[in-house]
């Protein structure tokens, strides 16, 4: 064999070895001729580090072994023909559908994001509508209706609410003259909330109010509109709601264009 041919073969072998080296570098492992890419390992590691795991050689080795184990299981399932199983096919179809839907929603929100202007407009709209009230009230809780009627009678005669509140069964508010601080009606059980919402500022209930806790005498000290939280505090919730509406609008648009029989 001539020297030129030997050199040519050596060059070809070198090229092939170089290609193989590049291919090997792109794979973390090859399982029965099926490659597992280093990119797949990187993606797996990235998901774990997002959960607080440090990116270490030990973690990458464990991920590689996990992906090898998974590939072995998948190959064995395919060898047994399980991919043709009706139930397996149903689950694969359902998983594919779910993945495609999520991908579509991500793509749609990427091209139709909830802008800062939209968030601000929605915040201003909700803030302007307002409507919810919060009440500053006091109450005296007693065991029996007759006791509550006696409290009302004494109050009408000039007794101080704060003094009579010391006999309240509600020990949490008794020490502060029956003060319940500021609350929206929904904080309380319905009979109490209804009675509170019907009172005028500075007035008390003319009849005892019964709840599962006993009998109440309630006085409304003040009313005010619920103060809206700052935009930064509620921005994530507003964005989520706007995105939900955008997805709903997409669904309605697709349904309107579709032929459904």
Automatic annotation (TrEMBL):
<dbReference type="InterPro" id="IPR027304">
    <property type="entry name" value="Trigger_fact/SurA_dom_sf"/>
</dbReference>
<dbReference type="InterPro" id="IPR000297">
    <property type="entry name" value="PPIase_PpiC"/>
</dbReference>
<comment type="similarity">
    <text>Belongs to the PpiC/parvulin rotamase family.</text>
</comment>
<dbReference type="InterPro" id="IPR050245">
    <property type="entry name" value="PrsA_foldase"/>
</dbReference>
<dbReference type="InterPro" id="IPR046357">
    <property type="entry name" value="PPIase_dom_sf"/>
</dbReference>
<dbReference type="GO" id="GO:0003755">
    <property type="term" value="F:peptidyl-prolyl cis-trans isomerase activity"/>
</dbReference>
<feature type="domain" description="PpiC">
    <location>
        <begin position="132"/>
        <end position="222"/>
    </location>
</feature>
<keyword id="KW-0732">Signal</keyword>
<feature type="signal peptide">
    <location>
        <begin position="1"/>
        <end position="25"/>
    </location>
</feature>
<dbReference type="Pfam" id="PF13145">
    <property type="entry name" value="Rotamase_2"/>
</dbReference>
<keyword id="KW-0697">Rotamase</keyword>
<keyword id="KW-0413">Isomerase</keyword>
<protein>
    <recommendedName>
        <fullName>peptidylprolyl isomerase</fullName>
        <ecNumber>5.2.1.8</ecNumber>
    </recommendedName>
</protein>
């Amino acid at each position: 064999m001539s020297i030129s041919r030997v050199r040519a073969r050596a060059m070809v072998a070198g090229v092939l070895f170089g290609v193989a080296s590049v291919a090997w570098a792109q794979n973390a492992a090859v399982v029965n001729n099926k490659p597992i890419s280093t990119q797949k390992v990187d993606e797996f590691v990235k998901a774990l580090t997002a959960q607080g795991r440090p990116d270490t050689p030990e973690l990458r080795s464990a991920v590689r072994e996990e992906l090898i184990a998974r590939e072995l299981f998948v190959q064995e399932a395919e060898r047994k023909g399980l991919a043709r199983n009706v139930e397996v096919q149903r689950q694969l179809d359902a998983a594919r559908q779910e993945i495609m839907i999520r991908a579509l929603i991500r793509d749609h929100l990427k091209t139709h994001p909830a802008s800062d202007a939209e968030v601000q407009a929605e915040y201003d709209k909700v803030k302007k509508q307002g409507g919810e009230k919060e009440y500053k009230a006091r109450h005296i809780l007693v065991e029996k209706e007759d006791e509550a009627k006696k409290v009302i009678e004494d109050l009408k005669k000039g007794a101080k609410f704060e003094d009579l509140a010391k006999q309240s069964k509600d020990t949490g508010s008794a020490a502060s003259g029956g003060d319940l601080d500021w609350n929206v009606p929904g904080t309380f059980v319905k009979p109490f909330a209804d009675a509170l919402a019907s009172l005028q500022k500075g007035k008390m209930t003319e009849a005892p109010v019964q709840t599962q806790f006993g009998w109440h005498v309630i006085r409304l000290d003040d009313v005010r509109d619920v103060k809206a939280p700052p935009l930064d505090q509620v921005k994530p919730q507003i964005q989520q709601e706007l995105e939900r509406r955008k997805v709903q609008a997409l669904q309605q648009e697709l349904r309107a264009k579709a032929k459904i029989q």
